Amino acid sequence: MKLFLFFLKSAPFLICFWFAIPYILGEDKVEELPKTGDVIVEDNGEESIKGADIITDEKVDTPPVESSKVGDIVITYRTIPVYSNGDNYTLSYGKHYSANGYYYGQKWQCVEFVKRFYHDAFNHQMPSAWGHAIGYYDPTVLHGKLNKDRGMFQFKNGGATSPQPDDLLVFDFAPYGHVSVISAVRENEIEVVQQNIAGKPRQIYCLEKKDGLFAIVAKNKPIGWLRLSSEKLNKPVFPLELEPEPEISPAP
């Protein structure tokens, strides 16, 4: 009876002692599962992000350029500067003309850059001085034929002609569209230079090749591209020694 009473009085102490054994032995560390977005250090010491991948149908792996003041030069391509239009793409800052009176367009819209680029880099003046970006591709012109308003040959996206550097790329999204200049063509992607896309004067898009057809893929898919005659492309105005070397050979 006395023994029974002893164990009864000692029960709370014994229960506490039993649950305290892991702590006494130093086994109180419980591994927590990582939460989404946590940084995990792998065995090789490299960090990786788990469950936080961003997936898009448009490759934009060129780091965004820090915001600049309106009129600042953000990059140059073939010695021709790309100017900042600020954060509001709808604004413009007056008409811009060349020294010989050729109308480039409204400062610093996308059209102004492409017209200035072809004029200053290749001495090309477009026969039609007017028009929004969306109108630079004429749907009535057949693939590979001359677009008379622009004085350039026109190719549809998804056709049998690969894009090449210095082509004029035309998008038909939004009310007025968008234009840029292709600066590089690689195995599975193209790079463009452009004006009036805040923080992205350079941008990369996927290039798909299948059954002899070439398609530039993007969330806002371009409608096609225009190309100068080989005679003008082979006689650039910019000094050849300043021409940037291609990163890799153009795709066939």
Core attributes:
26% strand; two-stranded antiparallel ribbon; alpha+beta; endopeptidase fold (from Nostoc punctiforme); 252 residues; eight-stranded antiparallel β-sheet; disordered N terminus
Shape summary: globular
The CATH architecture name of the domain at 73-242 reads Alpha-Beta Complex
State the CATH topology of the domain at 73-242: endopeptidase fold (from Nostoc punctiforme)
Query: What is the number of helices?
Result: 3
Widest sheet: strand ordering: 7-8-14-9-10-11-12-13
In terms of per-residue confidence, which ranges show pLDDT below 50 for 5 or more consecutive residues? 1-8, 13-58, 245-252
The CATH superfamily of the domain at 73-242 is endopeptidase domain like (from Nostoc punctiforme)
How far the N terminus sits from the C terminus, by CA atoms, comes to 99 Å
Proportion of residues in helical segments: 10-25%
For the residues shown, what is the average pLDDT?
A: 79
Percent strand equals 25-35%
Rg over alpha carbons: 31 Å
CATH class of the domain at 73-242: Alpha Beta
Q: How do the SSEs run, as a string of H and E? A: HEEEEEEHEEEEEEEEH
**Helices and strands: which structural class?**
alpha+beta
Major sheet summary line = 8 strands, antiparallel
Count of strand segments:
14
